[in-house]
Structure formats: structure tokens, C-alpha cells
Design goal:
Blueprint lengths: L1 H14 L9 H10 L3 H9 L6 E5 L5 H4 L12 E7 H17 L14 H26 L4 E6 L27 H17 L8 H17 L3 E3 L19 H6 L5 E3 L7 H10 L3 E4 L3 H4 L2 H14 L5 E2 L8 H24 L5 H19 L13
Parallel strand pairs: 1-2, 2-3, 3-4, 4-5, 5-6, 6-7
Helix pairs in contact: 1-2, 3-13, 5-6, 6-7, 6-8, 10-12, 12-13, 13-14
Pfam families: Amidohydro_2
InterPro entries: Amidohydro-rel (IPR006680), Metal_Hydrolase (IPR032466)
GO molecular function: hydrolase activity
């Protein structure tokens, strides 16, 4: 990938690596960084970013074992906040509730067979308790000062084609939910846990209900909900990764802010359209840095600016696992945004002052407003 060659060249400058003819620059970069002290490596790349605020999704698998917690990141002089991943919170709540049934061999029949009335009643009771606890947990999280957003990975757990409330038996008044819609889905979860020993919510209707619950709680507490869209791993169904599928969901919750992540690449145009017609939709154009080539990044930003209001575009690094990912996500985004806005100014379609304002909105002010960060830009940052 061209993006990899570019990343190696940019990292080599920070590390002071000069390419030796006949050797892989990437291997030289890896050797240099592997020889560095851990704290030195983190400081070298994180402090070079000039980032004022880090919003961390600490529900990513493996974070508790392999990463520092959100408070640790304040060492870089950043205001650091949390993003709560709703599916992970739901799994933590659901597993203990299912333990009595998991211990009962008679309850674990073949999932292809019909569920007996006794078990169905048990599952319905569990669902009532589960969603009560989920409601409490999400509400408590939304009210914590360190939490600035929820996040859904529904894109990884079946897709973004989430049905509207009316098709799922979810009551608008929150008093007459039809839990019978979810029983079969919960039984599939139960059987999956029995067979694998772990809980992973990717079972249709129950996942849809969880997303609806989070959207309602978020709207009631005035915090946004991020959605993974587009760009991801091999376990995503690309067919169901377009935010266009979310239109009915967006209509269901006009008071809740939706943040579409990763520029929805390769569905950026669809995401921009949604931003243009729904007041409650924002577009985050992270992760394309450094995942795609420089020319690809510029193309994506052009698509973002085609129709998306400039007060609704948010930059992020999507940095994770390695401090280098924060650095690359920062410098490449700034360069791509500068290149595209410069083109537009030279074409006579924007004044320079307007281009500067757009850059300031995308890199700072829009996120400050959406996530209620209550910070001012530090113009004295050295990076």
C-alpha cells in the first residue's frame, strides 16, 4: 500500500532514521522504535501532535490488558475524556443475568427448536431486568463529567440496517415494550455463550433494541452517539456498512446527535448527504489518516465538503494501540485539509479567511461544541 510507504517516511523523520540503500525503511523504523524506552516512544509522538483533547473509547477489545487508561493520557497535557461503547456495557450486564440458565442443562435445547413456554417466560423476565439495568447504567454514564459520548459498533455486529421502533415492538412512551420480539434473539445469545464460553452480542433484534435504548438515553441527557460506519475489518459486511441504512433510525430520534465515524469511507457522499438534510447528524473524518493514500484522503475531504455543512465536520485521529497512529492521524489530516482548502481558494470559490474558518471548525470548534469540551484553543502549542 502506498499509505504504508508514506507513513514510514514520515515516522523516519521524527525518529531520525536515514534510509540505507537496499534496506527497507519500514524495517529500519521498526528497529529504531523497538529500541526506545516505552515512555520515550509515547512522549516522542504524542507531544509532537499538538493535540489539546483526547476522547478515548476504552471499550475496544484488549484495552484493559494492553493499553493505559484514559486518565494516564493526561500526561501529554491533554484534556482527556471517555467514550462509552454501548454493546460492551450491555454484555457486562447481560452475562450475570444469564448465568442461572447457563447452569441449567434443560434450558439449553437446540436453538433450531421452538422455545418452550416456561423458558420463554424466563427469558422475558431476564429481558425486562436487563433493559432496566442497561437504562440505569447508560444514564449514569451519560451524567458522568468524564463521559462525552456513547458509541455503537452495530456495524460490526450485524450492520447499520437497524429497524425503526415501530417494527421492533419498542414503545415511544417506554412503558409498553413488547419483549416477545426479543426472546428468540436472546435465546441465540444464550446458546452462543454455552458453546463458546464468551458473550458477544451479534444477534439481530437484541442488538437493535440496545441501540434504540442508547439513542433514547443519549437524547434525554444531551450527549451524542458515535456510530462506526464504513471503513473497518474483514468481519464487517460492506453491504450493511453504509450510513444510508440509518435514515429511519435518524428520523426516530431527532433530539439525539448522531456522529458518523471514519468519513463513512467508501460511503462518504451518503454520509455528507445525511448531514445536509438532518440537523442532528455530524460527520467525523478520522481513520482515513493514515489508512488510505494521500490522494485518497484529499478525495475524501473533497467529498465531505461537497455538501456537508462546514459546522458539522469533525476531525479525529482514530489513534489506538500505538502512539505513532496519533501522530500520523494528526499531521496527515492537517496536510490534506490544507491542500484541499488551498485548491478551493485558488479556484476562487472561497476567500482565504473563510478557508481558515473552515479549518478551525473542523479541527477544533465543531468537536468542542458537539462534545461540550469547554476548552479554548491554545495558540502557543509547540509541535
Amino acid at each position: 500500500m502506498i499509505a504504508c510507504f508514506r507513513a514510514a517516511a514520515q515516522l523516519s523523520k521524527v525518529l531520525g532514521v536515514e534510509q540505507v540503500i537496499g534496506q527497507s525503511l519500514w524495517q529500519q523504523v521498526k528497529q529504531r522504535r523497538d529500541a526506545m524506552d516505552y515512555d520515550e516512544l509515547c512522549d516522542t509522538f504524542m507531544k509532537a501532535c499538538g493535540i489539546q483533547s483526547i476522547l478515548l473509547d476504552d471499550g475496544l477489545g484488549g484495552v484493559s490488558e494492553w493499553c493505559e487508561d484514559w486518565k494516564w493520557h493526561r500526561r501529554f497535557g491533554c484534556d482527556t475524556k471517555r467514550i462509552v461503547r454501548i454493546e460492551i456495557e450491555a454484555e457486562k450486564i447481560l452475562l450475570p443475568l444469564l448465568q442461572p440458565l447457563l447452569a441449567s442443562e434443560s434450558a439449553l435445547q437446540n436453538p433450531s427448536e421452538s422455545i418452550g413456554s416456561g423458558l420463554r417466560n424466563q427469558l422475558q423476565s431476564i429481558l425486562v431486568e436487563f433493559f432496566q439495568q442497561l437504562n440505569t447504567s447508560l444514564t449514569d454514564s451519560a451524567r458522568k463529567p468524564e463521559v462525552v459520548s456513547f458509541k455503537s459498533i452495530a456495524c460490526y455486529r450485524g450492520g447499520l440496517n437497524i429497524r425503526p421502533r415501530v417494527e421492533l415492538g419498542i414503545s415511544v412512551a417506554q412503558t409498553e415494550h413488547n419483549y416477545d420480539y426479543v426472546v428468540d434473539s436472546l435465546f441465540q445469545v444464550l446458546f452462543h455463550i454455552k458453546n463458546t464460553g464468551s458473550v458477544r452480542l451479534a444477534h439481530g433484534t437484541i442488538n437493535e433494541w440496545i441501540v434504540h435504548w442508547a439513542l433514547r438515553v443519549a437524547g434525554e441527557n444531551n450527549i451524542p452517539v458515535q456510530f462506526h460506519t464504513g471503513l473497518g475489518d474483514s468481519d464487517i459486511s460492506l453491504l450493511h456498512a453504509s450510513p444510508a441504512h440509518m435514515q429511519p433510525l435518524i428520523k426516530d430520534y431527532p433530539q439525539t446527535i448522531f456522529v458518523l465515524l471514519h468519513a463513512a469511507y467508501p460511503f462518504t457522499k451518503e454520509a455528507g448527504y445525511l448531514c445536509s438534510v438532518y440537523p442532528n447528524v455530524m460527520l467525523d473524518f478520522g481513520e482515513i489518516f493514515p489508512m488510505i493514500s494521500g490522494s485518497g484522503q484529499r478525495s475524501v475531504i473533497r467529498e465531505v465538503l461537497e455538501i456537508c455543512p462546514t459546522n458539522k465536520i469533525l476531525w479525529s485521529t482514530d489513534g489506538h494501540w500505538h502512539p505513532e497512529s496519533y501522530y500520523l492521524g494528526t499531521i496527515q489530516a492537517r496536510q490534506a485539509l490544507f491542500d484541499v482548502l488551498s485548491e478551493i481558494v485558488l479556484a476562487g470559490e472561497l476567500r482565504e479567511a473563510e478557508a481558515v474558518q473552515i479549518a478551525e471548525q473542523a479541527l477544533f470548534w465543531n468537536s468542542e461544541r458537539v462534545y461540550k469540551l469547554e476548552i479554548e484553543p491554545d495558540m502557543n502549542l509547540q509541535f
